[in-house]
Amino acid sequence: MNDAWDESLKAYFLRTLPLLCSIILVMMSYMPFNILLPTSIHPAMGVICVYYWMLHRPDVFNLFSVFCLGLVEDLITAAPLGSNLFQLLVLYVLISNLLKYFNGKPFEVMWVGFLPAAFLSMFARWFVVSVYYGQFLPLGMLGFSVLITVAAYPIISLVNVLVQNKFMADEV
Amino acid sequence: MKRRRVLFMQLSHIRLLVKKFALVILFLLAFVLMLLNKTDTILIDKTSSVATSVFSPVIDVLILPARGIAEVYDYFKDMRLAYQENKLLKAENRQLRIISEKARALEIENRLLAKLLNYTRPNEEEMVTVRVVAEEGDAFSHSLIAYTGENTTVKKDQIVITDRGVVGRVDTVGAMYSKILMITDINSRIPVMLEKNRVRGILAGDNNRKPKLEFTPIGSVINVGDRIITSGVAGTFPAGLPVGVVSEITKRDIRVTPLADFDSIEYVKIVSYADVEEPETEVVNAANPEAEVADE
Questions:
Q1: Are B66 and B178 in a shared domain?
Q2: Do residue A75 and residue B135 have CB atoms under 8 angstroms apart?
Q3: Within this chain, do residues B92 and B136 fall inside the same structural domain, yes or no?
Q4: Mean pLDDT for each consecutive 10-residue tract of chain A (172 residues)?
Q5: Could you give the number of structural domains in chain B?
Q6: Strands (E), B150-231
Q7: Which of A20, A81, B96, B112 places its Cα 20 to 30 Å from the Cα of B136?
Q8: pTM
Q9: Angle value at C-alpha B124, between B120 and B126, nearest 5 degrees
């Protein structure tokens, strides 16, 4: 009985691991240290995590995970509530439709594919938040954010790969 | 039995429908949240306060190893520049001693004149130094989260400064952590004035690194390089705190470069503009006013 309970608990934990890992990475992205770049613009960690996990483990990273991650990010930032959620939902729609094209493709292809996906989702958020405030937000900053996010993708993917290989390799 | 089956079918139908339209429902929820954010500020304020209290301790714990790495990095960076900096600091110290003496003399003179004019001094301010645990500064928002502990003097809308100048104002106060809205954020509006000619205006953020100076009187003389300080209008902020320098003047707007370095904020001060009772005004001893000031 106990073993069965342990097994199911372990399985549940493993299924929520991508979401937990993503939430931790999102929180870490708001740390006030700028060692590599002298700027307070951080990579959009939620976008990176949703893209990675949806391409590699769409079975465990579903719409509910996207919703939770978006909500957490919304609650941390001072941006309008719901805007991060909207951004990640746009990304979810994009990846859901492009999943079959990326299946089994090498990392470089996925990285190249990340650029338009990140740009479109972040641009969609930029548009909605601009409408919300009734004025255009700085496009230059958005462009810089997209570039930093795309540049950070391989490093953050490495963390996600480590989590996937270490804890989820023998998951059925 | 039949009734139970119908109920079961209804539940499964609802579940199927929710599953089918989950994406649409979540998109709608995102828009509803944004609308709520725009209209119901009390509910959003409370939610934000609770969320800040929940997530900030986690970020604070996650920060520990990163803080260690950053300290080691800073140590080696500082060591490299220590000799040069030491020479510069010694020269600066000599200059500051002279300025300090002058400032002391001016303060005494200012107090004497204030007493002679029976001038009511503005409220005294108290400062609380707090540690920054999270920051963001992208196209969507510019804010900080700071650890304020169980400090009861920290309240919404209090001004936040560094040793260089104004950073922003307290937006949300949580149990142990507070969210600070930076002056560059699109929601930030701060009453300011030009230091040299006291021309008043509003410093409005628009998520750019340089906020705009708005609502200045038509025909007022504003030049690039003019210093901007808080005006103290509306009484919520103390007057005279350095904010920035006018850096761009175009036909469309006037841009101000903040004095505070937003890219490396570790500690900030929250200025509590407390109400203090004014001491009873006394007649200044005209024969020896300095002695009276010294007695104080």
A1: no
A2: no
A3: no
A4: 79 89 90 65 92 91 93 90 94 91 87 94 96 92 93 93 83 54
A5: 3
A6: 159-161, 166-173, 177-182, 189-194, 200-204, 212-214, 227-230
A7: A20
A8: 0.81
A9: 175
Q: pLDDT of B194-231, one tens digit each?
A: 988 889 999 999 999 899 999 998 888 899 999 999 98
Helix A107-133 and helix B22-39: axis angle, to 10°? Answer: 40
Cβ count within 10 A of residue B34: 22
Chain A positions in Cβ-Cβ contact with residue B134 (cut-off 8 Å): 27, 30-32, 76
ipTM for the predicted complex comes to 0.87
Cβ of A126 within 8 Å of Cβ of B47? The answer is no
Structure tokens at A58: 């769409």
B175 and B268 share a domain?
A: yes
* Residue B14: domain span: 2-31
Q: Torsion over CA of A56, A62, A64 and A66, rounded to 10 degrees?
A: 40
Contacts of A41 (CB under 8 A, 6+ apart): A141, A144, A145, A148, B137, B138
Same domain, B164 and B107: no
Using the predicted structure, report yes or no on whether residue B292 has a pLDDT greater than 60: no
**What kind and span of H or E run contains B31?**
helix B22-39
Q: Are B239 and B229 in contact (CB under 8 A)?
A: yes
Pick from B31, B54, B134: which is nearest to A82 by CB?
B31
